[in-house]
Amino acid sequence: MDIRYSCNQKDFKRYTTEEMRDEMLITGLYKADEVVAVYSHVDRMVTLGCMPVHETVSIDKGIDIWANFGTHYFLERREIGMFNIGKDSTGIVVADGVKYELGYKDCLYITKGTKEVTFASADPEHPAKFYMVSAPAHCSYETRLIKMADANHRPLGSVETCNKRTINQFIHPAKIYKYNKRCGGKMQGFRRKCGCRFWADLV
Questions:
Q1: Which residues touch 74 (CB under 8 Å, ≥6 apart)?
Q2: Is this model's pTM higher than 0.85 or not?
Q3: pLDDT per residue over 14-70, tens digit each?
Q4: Span 121-141, mean pLDDT?
Q5: Residues 6+ apart with CB under 8 A from 119
Q6: Could you give the strand order of the β-sheet that contains 165-169, starting from the edge strand earlier in sequence?
Q7: Number of Cα atoms under 13 Å in the Cβ half of residue 187
Q8: What is the pLDDT of residues 73-127, one digit of tens each?
Q9: Largest CB tally within 10 Å, which of 54, 110, 149, 180?
Q10: What are phi and psi of 163, to 5 degrees?
Q11: 47 and 26 in contact (C-beta within 8 Å)?
Q12: Where are the beta strands (DSSP E) in the chain?
């Protein structure tokens, strides 16, 4: 697992383009039958990629969970959201024995406390590509599959201003979370942290 640390703002001013790319850019997320993970100490976010082709792949494959997170399994104190971005593919995710099928651009939110998560592709000729972001969690919600058709669609902009688009919201309080006093603050936190990493609001 690649571990990224925060950089000093004074040092960052002196970075070359190559150094900035090394610090900020994530590449090579998809390798056949592997899990590629990048752990950023900024917000303790983990960005993961998995492209199962011929095998069923566990979420912790190649990751020393205890050494890196101090937990017994990956989602013991974390939650995760994922998209299948493999065009013309169907991805299969099994979370604690429950099977979910993700078509292209479908989203799955898996809650804290889920012990076993595996990935597979329905067709090796068209493998799924799971793009995932995980954040620390303090409450457990409901694991949920959100299809593209069920997302919160928000048309914005106009042709006249050259910014007409539709924001498709998936990991969103209206779609995932159940409000309560103890966990209410966390509802917005997970979406806010992950939104800038593309998957919370998928255009």
A1: 59, 60, 63, 65, 80, 117, 134
A2: no
A3: 999 999 898 888 999 999 999 999 999 888 899 999 999 999 999 999 999 999 999
A4: 94
A5: 50, 52, 56, 57, 58, 59, 91, 92, 93, 128, 130
A6: 152-156, 165-169, 201-202
A7: 15
A8: 999 999 999 999 999 999 999 999 999 999 999 999 999 999 999 999 999 999 9
A9: 110
A10: -140, 30
A11: yes
A12: 2-4, 35-40, 45-50, 57-58, 78-84, 91-95, 98-102, 107-110, 117-121, 130-136, 144-146, 152-156, 165-169, 201-202
Class of residue 149 by CB neighbours under 10 A (exposed 0-12, middle 13-18, buried 19+): exposed
Amino acid in the structure at residue 5:
Y
Judge whether 106 and 146 are in contact, CB under 8 Å: yes
How far apart, in whole angstroms, are the C-alpha atoms of residue 108 and residue 144?
A: 6
Give CA–CA dist 199/203, Å, rounded. 9
The letter for the amino acid at 167 is I
Token pair belonging to 139: 């409450």
Say how many residues make up the chain: 203
Radius of gyration of the chain (CA): 17
Please count the other Cβ atoms lying within 10 Å of the Cβ belonging to residue 3: 11
